[in-house]
């Protein structure tokens, strides 16, 4: 579904990604783990078309999207959940949900969003940023689900959230996966990652240095946590 | 985003704009002025540098550009042509050059331009110079360089008062004449109570003082005087409160000029103050202002004018010549520019030289009777030209017969009454 | 007193319309449009030229002039501003500043600095209960309230408004969510210019129509935008009317201070709330 070939990216003179190649198959959940500054967020931004200086190619659903602007990628089925959740303060909760145009046939109707996230219905007239952190994360996820995106690019959805909410997000991701949606996830919480994802890539200094399956992640959990400095 | 507040707080962009703008205009003006004079320098030594150079220093692109500006330069060239036609081979000044510069209404610019004109561009006389602060700056340069300066465009009485000097002349009008003409006439006509609104800078404050004195001397009373911001586009506050003052003023006297005056009059009409019994008197008004507002807006407003193109056949004939060259009717200042240049050249003719001291001697006490000045005398004591001025009234729209036919002259204020007595502060 | 307050609101109408245009442009493009005053001036001149040369009346001008200048604004954005957008914002400041000078000089060259005559479209007074007021001024206030209100409704109640708000707040994210932000930039710029032109046409019958009218006014409008909070639409409108009110009452009670009152107010607001009354800190 997604094929990334020798993708490099720079911030000015500094190289942030070094020839990253990566494939994600339809229906998979793949996580990217790595220390802060390893290049995970940059990779996601490159996939979304938000990073200026890059080389390499990105193929999505068999089409080369390297030259497309972000809004065109979104309309082809990429759904972006940024690391700060990207909830608009000047839009109400409902407007936040309705802002992105529907791009796929599996789009969630608003009613389904509200059934899944009753808090959002209760607060639908509130400005987006009046929600709690967990609620904002729900909103950001719900927003891309409503568009019917085929591939979700989620940048640390569990960061700073209570275990209860992390669990809830896990449930949603699994539900999403069951519906055939693909997810590329940045996740520092390797324990959580192992419960939702199929495969994991460890990124360091702009490269994919290792790829693991769930069993390996579980076996090396302590080593990984040490490495990540958590 | 710091730029906008900072610029705004210092009153920035507009001021900057006004100083950046004129450079283009200046270049254009320079081109226009080339090719006056020409021919070999004759006359044998009596004329400095072999030619007489008349420099017009005025506002070529700002708020007074239409009052004199390039039209003033054209008027001076007409004076040169008339002088040459009159004296032909006998002309002392056979090579005459007219040059021009833009002082942007700024005293510092006027100061440096005046030095440049006298020194580098060999000007024998500087003419016009509107804006009082700029005129005072040039007067000072003239004094130091011992060169003639004849101011037409500025209003301050200081030029012939405490800042007078041997080489500086004031030719045409001043704030005393404006205030006394209008203030005295209207007060004597029964407008006892006045409300004065003036722009809060040197000219406005000066006008307010002189106006108030004139009204009081004529037996009237200034109920209140309010300073208004300058520039300002909303005078409603003053207009709304005018009828409610106690005692109720019969006349609103505005000392605003240019765009501010237009704003005030438009709003005066909006509030129908005339119907509420508050008439309008304008301190300083040029025909260009009436044109801007349309005569209807000012209908029946009285003011003091010091020259009007359609007053009589003489003026009209000159105005026709001027219009043939410029496509416009001349303002009073432009006619003053013409007359000042002509009288300067006549003085050179009489002196037989363009040496400043000799020309000044010829100008002092000179009687002037030309298209601009009637019963004119250049007072030897303070170098002020006194001449007949006029109480004028803006015509009603139905009486306007042709373009720029805006004024009706109500009466002549004789030269002896029109201007202030010699200020003892002036020591030549 | 009430009458004076009303008068303040009338002059506030112009501030509000101009500040509103500046605010939407700043929000969407991050450009402080120094040419805004020049477009206000062009609006008034547009009305004058239509009447003087073509005999087109005020009411038609009130529609035609903003549309024409709005389209010119779109062209300006496409041809120039867009090209400079990726560079330092200073380039666009300089561009719009230079443009203001050029427009002003072109008009000056053609029409001189003297004010041009423009008649009132209608006279008469309206009885407002407590006092009567010139009908045209009441009309100006009503129309500008209606326009500001409509813009507010469009921004808060429509999809277009939602997109504009989202693009203003986070342009990059909005693109990543599938919205072609660039497509909205030119129309928004054009719309801001159209608002300035609209204010200019409204001003023609009651204010001096000359090349400097915009330059004189825009300084106060910048102060208004700063007071209201840069890029805040509601803030700029509210501050516009408030500043009108303050200057009118200032003229009444402390005429000597009235020139500086607005800037004193601005300084006070900035000390108290650096982002302006309705600005968000991150908008700076």
TrEMBL record, chain A:
Gene Ontology molecular function: ATP binding; ATP hydrolysis activity; branched-chain amino acid transmembrane transporter activity
Keywords: Amino-acid transport, ATP-binding, Nucleotide-binding, Transport
InterPro entries assigned: AAA+_ATPase, ABC_transporter-like_ATP-bd, ABC_transporter-like_CS, BCAA_Transport_ATP-bd_LivF, P-loop_NTPase
Nucleotide-binding recorded as keyword: yes
UniProt keyword annotation of Nucleotide-binding present: yes
Chain ranges of the ABC transporter domain: 2-230
GO BP term, pick one: L-amino acid transport
SUPFAM superfamilies hit by this protein: P-loop containing nucleoside triphosphate hydrolases
Family per similarity comment: Belongs to the ABC transporter superfamily.
The protein's name in its UniProt record: ABC transporter ATP-binding protein
Organism: Actinomadura rubrobrunea
Taxonomic path: Bacteria, Bacillati, Actinomycetota, Actinomycetes, Streptosporangiales
UniProtKB/TrEMBL annotation, chain B:
Keywords assigned by UniProt, alphabetized: Signal
Protein's name in the database: ABC transporter permease
Domain Leucine-binding protein stretches: 52-395
Pfam families: Peripla_BP_6
InterPro entries found in the cross-reference section: BCAA_transport, Leu-bd, Peripla_BP_I
Family of the protein in this entry: Belongs to the leucine-binding protein family.
Lineage start: Bacteria, Bacillati, Actinomycetota, Actinomycetes, Streptosporangiales
Automatic annotation (TrEMBL), chain C:
InterPro entries recorded: ABC_transp_permease (IPR001851), BCAA_transport_permease (IPR052157)
Cellular localization per UniProt: Cell membrane
Listed name of the protein: Branched-chain amino acid ABC transporter permease
Membrane topology: Multi-pass membrane protein
GO biological process: amino acid transport
An example molecular function term from Gene Ontology annotations: transmembrane transporter activity
One Pfam match: BPD_transp_2
Xref: CDD domains: TM_PBP1_LivH_like (cd06582)
Membrane-spanning residues: 12-32, 39-69, 89-107, 128-155, 184-205, 217-246, 252-272
Highest taxon listed in the record's lineage: Bacteria
Keyword Ion transport: no
Principal location class: membrane
GO (cellular component) term, any one: plasma membrane
UniProt keyword list: Amino-acid transport, Cell membrane, Membrane, Transmembrane, Transmembrane helix, Transport
Presence of the UniProt keyword Transmembrane helix in the record: yes
């Amino acid at each position: 579904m997604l094929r990334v070939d020798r993708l490099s990216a720079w911030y000015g003179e500094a190289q942030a990604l070094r020839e990253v190649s990566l494939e994600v198959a339809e229906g998979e959940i793949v996580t990217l783990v790595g220390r802060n500054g390893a290049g995970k967020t940059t990779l996601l931004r490159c996939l979304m078309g938000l990073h200026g200086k890059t080389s390499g190619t990105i193929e999505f659903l068999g089409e080369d999207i390297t030259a497309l602007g972000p809004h065109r990628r979104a309309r082809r089925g990429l759904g972006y959940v940024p690391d700060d959740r990207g909830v608009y303060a000047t839009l109400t909760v409902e407007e936040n949900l309705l802002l992105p145009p529907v791009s796929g046939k599996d789009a969630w109707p608003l009613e389904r969003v509200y059934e899944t996230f009753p808090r959002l219905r209760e607060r639908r007239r509130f400005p987006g940023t009046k929600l709690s952190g967990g609620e904002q994360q729900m909103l950001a996820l719900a927003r891309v689900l409503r568009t019917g995106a085929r591939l979700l690019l989620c940048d640390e959805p569990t960061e700073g959230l209570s275990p209860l909410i992390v669990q809830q997000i896990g449930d949603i991701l699994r539900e999403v996966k069951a519906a055939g949606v693909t997810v590329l996830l940045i996740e520092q919480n390797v324990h959580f990652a192992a419960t939702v994802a199929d495969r994991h890539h460890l990124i360091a200094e702009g490269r994919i240095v290792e790829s693991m399956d769930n069993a390996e992640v579980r076996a090396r959990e302590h080593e990984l946590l040490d490495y990540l400095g958590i | 985003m710091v730029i906008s507040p900072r610029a705004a707080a210092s009153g920035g962009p507009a001021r900057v704009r006004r100083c950046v703008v004129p450079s283009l205009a200046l270049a254009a003006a320079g081109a226009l002025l080339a090719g006056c004079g020409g021919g070999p320098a004759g006359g044998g030594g009596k004329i400095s540098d072999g030619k007489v150079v008349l420099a017009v220093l005025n506002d070529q692109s700002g708020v007074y550009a239409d009052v004199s500006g390039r039209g003033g330069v054209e008027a001076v060239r007409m004076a040169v042509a008339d002088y040459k036609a009159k004296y032909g081979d006998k002309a002392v000044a056979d090579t005459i050059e007219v040059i021009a510069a833009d002082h942007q209404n700024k005293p510092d610019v006027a100061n440096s331009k005046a030095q440049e004109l006298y020194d580098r561009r060999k000007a024998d006389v500087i003419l016009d110079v509107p804006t009082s602060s700029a005129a005072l700056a040039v007067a000072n340069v003239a004094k130091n360089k011992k060169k003639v300066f004849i101011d037409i465009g500025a209003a301050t009485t200081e030029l012939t008062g405490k800042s007078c000097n041997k080489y500086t002349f004031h030719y045409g009008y001043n704030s005393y004449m404006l205030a006394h003409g209008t203030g005295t006439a209207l007060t004597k006509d029964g407008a006892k109570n006045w409300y004065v609104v003036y722009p809060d800078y040197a000219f406005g404050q000066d006008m307010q003082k002189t106006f108030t004195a004139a009204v009081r001397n004529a037996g009237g009373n200034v109920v209140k005087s309010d300073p208004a911001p300058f520039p300002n586009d909303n005078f409603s506050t003053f207009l709304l409160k005018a009828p409610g003052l106690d005692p109720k003023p019969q006349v609103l006297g505005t000392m605003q000029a240019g765009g501010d005056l237009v704003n005030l009059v438009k709003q005066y009409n909006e509030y129908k103050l005339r119907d509420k019994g508050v008439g309008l008197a304008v301190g300083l008004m040029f025909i260009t202002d009436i044109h801007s507002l349309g005569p209807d807006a000012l209908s029946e407003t009285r003011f003091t004018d010091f020259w009007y193109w359609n007053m009589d056949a003489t003026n009209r004939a000159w105005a026709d010549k001027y219009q043939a060259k410029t496509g416009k009717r001349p303002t009073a200042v432009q006619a003053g520019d013409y007359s000042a240049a002509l009288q300067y050249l006549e003085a050179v003719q009489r002196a037989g030289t363009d040496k400043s001291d000799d020309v000044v001697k010829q100008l002092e006490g000179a009687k002037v009777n030309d298209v601009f000045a009637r019963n004119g005398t250049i007072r030897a004591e303070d170098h002020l030209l006194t001449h007949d001025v006029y109480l004028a009234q803006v015509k009603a729209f139905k009486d306007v017969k042709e373009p720029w036919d805006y004024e009706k002259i109500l009466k002549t204020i004789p030269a002896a009454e029109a201007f202030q007595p010699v200020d003892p502060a002036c020591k030549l | 007193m009430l009458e004076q307050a009303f008068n303040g609101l009338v002059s506030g109408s112009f501030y509000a319309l101009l500040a509103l245009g500046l605010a939407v442009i700043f929000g969407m493009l991050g450009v402080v449009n120094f040419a805004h005053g020049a477009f206000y001036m062009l609006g008034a001149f547009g009305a004058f030229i239509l009447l003087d040369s073509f005999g087109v009346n005020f009411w038609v001008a009130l529609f035609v002039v903003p549309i024409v200048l709005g389209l010119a604004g779109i062209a300006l954005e496409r041809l120039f501003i867009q090209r400079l957008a990726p560079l330092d914002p200073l380039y666009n400041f300089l561009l719009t500043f230079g443009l203001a000078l050029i427009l002003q000089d072109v008009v000056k060259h053609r029409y001189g600095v003297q004010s041009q005559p423009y008649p009132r479209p209608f006279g008469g007074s309206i009885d407002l209960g407590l006092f009567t007021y010139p009908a045209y001024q009441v009309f100006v206030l009503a129309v500008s309230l209606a326009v500001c209100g409509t813009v507010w409704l469009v921004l808060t109640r429509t999809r277009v408004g939602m997109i504009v708000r989202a693009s203003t707040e986070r342009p990059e994210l909005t693109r990543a969510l599938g919205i072609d932000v660039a497509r909205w930039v030119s129309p928004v710029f054009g719309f801001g210019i159209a608002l300035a032109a609209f204010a200019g046409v409204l001003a023609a019958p009651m204010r001096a129509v000359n090349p400097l009218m915009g330059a004189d006014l825009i300084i106060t409008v910048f102060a208004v935008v700063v007071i209201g909070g840069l890029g805040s639409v509601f803030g700029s409108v509210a501050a516009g009317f408030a500043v009108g009110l303050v200057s009118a009452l200032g003229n009444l009670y402390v005429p000597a201070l009235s020139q500086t009152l607005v800037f004193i107010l601005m300084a006070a607001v900035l000390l108290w709330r650096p982002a302006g009354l309705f600005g968000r800190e991150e908008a700076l």
